[in-house]
Design a protein that fits this description.
Blueprint lengths: L1 H8 L3 H27 L1 H9 L2 E7 L6 E2 L5 E13 L7 H12 L11 H11 L1 H6 L3 H8 L5 H11 L2 H4 L4 H15 L6 E4 L5 H9 L7 E11 L6 H4 L14 H5 L13 H5 L1 H4 L4 E7 L5 E8 L6 E4 L3 H21 L7 E7 L6 E11 L6 E5 L3 H4 L9 H11 L7 E4 L17 E4 H7 L2 H11 L14 H14 L24 H8 L8 H12 L3 E3 L4 E5 L11 E4 L4 E4 L4 H16 L19 E10 L13 E11 L6 E11 L7 H23 L13 H9 L1
Parallel strand pairs: 2-8
Antiparallel strand pairs: 1-6, 2-3, 3-4, 3-5, 6-7, 8-15, 9-10, 9-20, 10-11, 12-13, 14-17, 15-16, 18-19, 19-20
Helix pairs in contact: 4-10, 16-25, 18-20, 18-24, 19-24, 20-22
């Protein structure tokens, strides 16, 4: 029994060895943990604190813009720039110290400093004096909850005297200007301190002292340059400055799309409309910071890529030539008299088959308030942002509406004589034309024919000295038809802020419908007129105008364009619900206007043996002046506005045009500005075409050639 018990309590040697091995392993583990925690603990703790990562997007240059012949219109000029990147934990005193050092190395303009900037800076520079401006009573109110701690700073600001903020020296103000840029930036985001007129000496000085200027760096920034000066600049649009950054009204929109607050963006027109492609892909930098917010390491995630390039539909040779002619004609007309209210003119050229805008010219005559001398400003935007009564140019739409509603048939005759309508002044043409059909009515621009057509559209009957049964629904009928051509509706051009025009409201007055039929009631933009006549020219397709032709991927070589990213294809907005034979007949009438004797545009085209044929329609509208100086004159001032629309060649149109000259003259003697500008525009178009064909420089042959800014400047100098 005793021997058996001893056997059961005996532990085998192998089990003892196992226990010993486990003991050794635990000892090693404990020793290792102690080593990690005690010996290397602080090192690992600091390493853990370095793992906060912040990704920052750095802006890249915007895409360029070219005309249809690949001449550079908008480019980027490289600028030496000095930037400051604030860490998350940077104190105001640290920024001030850096600003004082940097002020000794660069010159900084002080004109942007505000009174509030001076007060904030005074508190920073005079902390003890600023503290003394807070009374014990103020502090007691904080304790009692009547004021918050932040209100004490407001009291300090209010109690700083004018003498105190005027005590800064020029050197201190320069420091303030730099400090102002430092503090306006966002943590870990580079802020431009200076990018205009940074000299090579300044750039070198800062570069040599970067080690003693925490947060300061040197880089290459950019600015927009315009090869053709002011030509079409208003349409090209503006870009916000580095000071402006993102517009406040669209701040959330841009921030949600990965923009930084100080990014420059398109503010207007093409720059704004095509912001998504012009902006480019930003460079991404990952900043690794410690818990104090200090950057301990930066890693480039992606280099970024500048914005995509735009090829516009505009022909800058044509644009410049027409703009110069508008300027010349305006100045000559102002000297001739009877042009007190004349101050602007517009010319639009468009490809009627594609909607490509070849020219969008507009000029405005302005008297300089300081010098009293006349100047001519770019007003290309007026082609889409201003509207006018244009007169008889719209009569093609009136005739086609008559056909469509069944009010008249092709070759319908009306007797042209003054119409006497009750409670309405006599409605007449500029002369009594007798018995005429629709073609003659277009050719000679009969008002009475259009009046009788409008009466028939309304289902009313004319009897001398009696009223007409015309109401609001009849206005709706005609306006609905006119909209098919683009008259009274936005054209859809790829630019923001396009207006639709103004609609006359007196729809219970029968005489106003007759005025509508001859273009003297509702108002239309020059671009709408171009779309309208293009619709007639191409056989009834309302094309959407567009000013951007192609979008290209960027390349580093300034003499080349990248691959096509997107091509803007022609877009048909609607097809006229009309017979082709009806459209053909109006086309015939338009050709008679320009090419047959007796036509209102014959003296500009048919009578001059030109190498091309034209179809056109002229317009003269008696309009009351409502321009920028209308408050200067008492009462309404009657003026005559001029317009002309058309296309060429008449048989196979390749260019459509619209000319509008509001308030062109007073009295009965026309200065013919509409015809002069239309003739010049078409002559220039076909002359350029011939010259380029002879030189072998059609669009197909220059497809891969980029004409840069320097080449253009050299051409202009020659």
């Amino acid at each position: 029994m005793t021997k058996e018990k001893k056997k059961k309590t005996h532990v085998p040697l192998r089990l003892n060895l196992l226990f010993f091995a486990v003991f050794l392993l635990f000892s090693v583990l404990i020793l290792r943990l102690g080593l990690v925690q005690i010996v290397y603990g602080d090192d690992y703790k600091r390493e853990i604190e370095r793992t906060e990562e912040v990704t920052v997007n750095n802006p890249v240059p915007r895409g360029k813009m070219y005309d249809r012949n690949l001449k550079v219109m908008v480019d980027n000029e490289p600028l030496n720039a000095i930037t400051y990147t604030r860490s998350q934990g940077t104190k105001a005193t640290e920024m001030l110290d850096t600003a004082e050092k940097l002020a000794k190395l660069i010159d900084k303009e002080t004109d942007k400093i505000t009174v509030r900037d001076r007060k904030d800076f005074w508190i920073l520079k005079h902390p003890d004096e600023a503290e003394a401006k807070i009374t014990d009573a103020d502090r007691k109110k904080v304790t009692e909850g009547e004021l918050e701690q932040k209100d004490l700073y407001k009291l300090q600001i209010e109690r700083i005297t004018e003498k105190e903020i005027d005590s800064f020296t020029d050197a201190e103000l320069e420091v303030l200007a730099i400090y102002r840029e430092f503090s306006s930036g966002y943590a870990l985001t580079p802020q431009i301190v200076k990018n205009k007129d940074v000299t090579e000496v300044e750039f070198a000085r800062v570069s040599e002292n970067l080690d003693s200027l925490p947060g300061v760096n040197i880089t290459t920034d950019w600015d927009r340059t315009y090869t053709f000066g002011q030509t079409l600049k208003s349409v090209l649009g503006k870009v916000s400055s580095s000071d402006e950054g993102l517009p406040s009204e669209k701040l959330d929109y841009y921030l949600s799309r990965g923009y930084s607050r100080n990014d420059r963006v398109g503010k207007s027109y093409i720059e704004l409309q095509y912001e998504d492609v012009l902006q480019g892909n930003k460079a991404k930098v990952k900043n690794i910071t410690d818990k104090g917010g200090n950057i301990v390491e930066s890693q480039i995630i992606s280099e970024g890529q500048r914005g995509k390039d735009l090829v516009l539909t505009v022909d800058m040779d044509l644009q410049q030539a027409i703009e110069n002619e508008i300027e010349k004609q305006l100045l000559q007309a102002k000297k001739a008299g009877n042009t007190k209210f004349l101050d602007r003119a517009f010319v639009v050229l468009m490809d009627p088959k594609t909607g490509e805008v070849l020219t969008m010219a507009g000029k405005q005559y302005v008297i300089d308030k300081e010098t009293g001398k006349p100047t001519i400003n770019d007003y290309a935007l007026g082609n889409i942002s201003s509207s006018y009564t244009v007169g008889s140019s719209v009569k093609g739409a009136t005739i086609l509406t008559g056909y469509q509603t069944g009010a008249i048939q092709p070759n319908r005759y009306f007797y042209d004589r003054p119409l006497l309508i009750k409670n309405t002044p006599p409605k007449k043409s500029y002369s009594n034309m007798g018995n005429i059909n629709d073609l003659t009515a277009l050719k000679r621009s009969s008002n009475v024919y259009m009046f009788l057509t409008a009466i028939a559209i309304a289902g009313a009957e004319y009897s001398p000295n009696r009223g007409l049964n015309i109401g609001p629904k009849d206005f709706d009928t005609m306006r609905h038809s006119f909209v098919q051509f683009g008259l009274g509706a936005r054209t859809g051009i790829d630019l923001p802020n396009e207006m639709a025009g103004f609609v006359g409201q007196d729809t219970n007055n029968p005489g106003k419908l007759l005025d509508f039929a001859i273009g003297q009631y509702d108002t239309y933009t020059p671009m709408q007129l171009a779309q309208y006549v293009s619709t007639i020219a191409n056989g009834g397709y309302r094309m959407e105008p567009h000013i951007v032709k192609e979008i290209h991927d960027p390349v580093d070589d300034n003499t080349q364009l990248g691959a096509v990213f997107n091509e803007i294809t022609p877009k048909v907005l609607n097809k006229l619900d009309m017979k082709d034979s009806w459209i053909d007949r109006v086309q015939t009438g338009f050709k008679m206007v320009a090419m047959e004797k007796g036509g209102t545009a014959y003296k500009y085209f048919g009578g001059k043996n030109k190498a091309y044929t034209v179809a056109a329609k002229t317009g003269t509208a008696q309009a009351f002046y409502d321009g920028p100086n209308k408050d200067k004159y008492k009462g309404l001032q009657a003026t005559m506005s001029l317009s002309m629309v058309g296309y060429a060649p008449a048989e196979n149109p390749e260019v459509a045009f619209a000319v509008v000259v509001p308030w062109a003259y007073q009295g009965h003697s026309s200065n013919g500005l509409n015809g002069k500008l239309a003739e010049f525009a078409l002559d220039t178009y076909f002359d350029l075409k011939k010259t380029r064909q002879q030189a072998g420089q059609t669009e197909a042959t220059v497809e891969n050639k980029v004409v840069n800014s320097k080449e253009i400047e050299q051409e202009q100098a020659e």
